Amino acid sequence: MQGILYEEPTVWLFLLVTVVMGGWLAWMTGRAIAVTWKPTYQLVIYTLVLGLVVRFIHFALFQASLLTLHYYIVDTIILLGFALAGWRYHRARQMTTQYRWLFERTGPFGWKPREGVEIKRELA
Fold first, then answer.
1. CB contact at 8 A, 98 and 42
2. 103 pairs with which residues across the strands?
3. Looking at residue 112, what DSSP letter applies?
4. Is 39 helix (H, G, I), strand (E, B) or coil?
5. Residues 86-122 pLDDT 10s
6. Would the CA dihedral through 98, 32, 87, 43 be positive or negative?
């Protein structure tokens, strides 16, 4: 996998920086977007910037290359997965706590209308 997903000498450095540190930051970014009710395109923009930050940490601490499109894309895709999971988790929590009479939770990432509640959606 070295050379495809990461360029560091060991997978542990990749897991530490990209998955643990970057994943936690991405999860918290998703949480912040969900809590403030901002649209998901802003989450994607913030994650693209966070991908640059993670690339810089690889460069500054472990002498990895800074401006490589391949590793930037790999890091950003992983971060985007964490960010979207964090956003969806917290949005499900919001919908089921703030609108408890309308929705019930179906799992950590989902919700559904309560029995007997009709949700009207307007087509714009």
1. no
2. 113
3. E
4. coil
5. 999 999 999 999 999 899 999 999 999 988 877 777 7
6. positive
